[in-house]
User: Fold this.
Amino acid sequence: MQLEQLASGLTGADASCPEEFGGLSISGLTADSRQVKPGYLFAALKGVQVDGARFAPKAVEQG
Assistant:
């Protein structure tokens, strides 16, 4: 699935997908930065004790 297809269902302030990323192919989704592989979309969710955005750099390193 293409990132722009996933983003098309969003509404509100975060509803846009930057044009340069719209054509990216997404092969998986995870909220666990340790499970990120090339082609995965990392969902940086805010938890009760830890904000997932803290792990975004690790997810980028892994693909």
About this structure: The chain has two helices and two strands. The helical segments are 3-7, 56-61. The first strand starts at residue 28 and ends at 30. The CA atoms of residues 42 and 55 lie 9 Å apart.
